[in-house]
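[step 3/7] inverse_fold.run input=structure_tokens len=178
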């Protein structure tokens, strides 16, 4: 399993380094991921209040994952290879507008809004920015970054060497319906 995950990360990382230097970030270059990967599962939490801030994030107009065409081609290739091995992608986040990043930073700087501490139980809110969990400039704004994990074709989670959070367990029922 570790070799499989490493393969995915290497393939996607190398491709992204090449694409990042060549990709135009004109919004006409952005497409929904589902147009090329029809069996992925989505949990776009920033469209809802089910995230570390406890609020819907500015800039998310729909629970849809977008990427640049070139990045999506690379991700599609990885998804095709993984599908042959019995896996699907569970996508949490892709393109993130700068106004969403600004929303994260404003939330961190608001001492009166603790958000949902269960998403960062062992950290202080102020450490999220200092520790680079949240960045003032995010690679997601280019449309060539994706937050994901692997699931099996039946929707069950793949052991990635870490304990599943209660949020992933709750989400399991949504995956099986897709």
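[step 3/7] decode complete -> sequence:
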């Amino acid at each position: 399993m570790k070799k499989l995950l490493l393969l995915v990360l290497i393939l996607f990382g190398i491709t992204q380094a090449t694409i990042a230097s060549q990709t135009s970030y004109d919004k006409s270059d952005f497409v929904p991921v589902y147009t090329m990967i029809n069996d992925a599962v989505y949990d776009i939490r920033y469209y809802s209040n089910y995230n570390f801030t406890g609020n819907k994030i500015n800039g998310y107009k729909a629970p849809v994952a977008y990427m640049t065409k070139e990045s999506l081609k690379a991700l599609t290739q990885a998804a095709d290879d993984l599908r042959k091995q019995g896996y699907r992608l569970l996508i949490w986040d892709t393109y993130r507008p700068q106004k969403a990043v600004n929303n994260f930073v404003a939330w961190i700087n608001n001492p009166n809004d603790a958000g949902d501490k269960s998403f960062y139980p062992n950290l202080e809110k102020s450490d999220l920015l200092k520790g680079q969990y949240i960045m003032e400039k995010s690679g997601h704004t280019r449309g060539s970054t994706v937050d994901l994990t692997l699931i099996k074709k039946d929707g069950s989670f793949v052991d990635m060497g870490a304990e599943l959070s209660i949020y992933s367990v709750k989400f399991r029922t949504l995956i099986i319906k897709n």
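[step 4/7] annotate
The longest strand covers residues 87-93.
Residues 108 and 126 are 6 Å apart (CA to CA).
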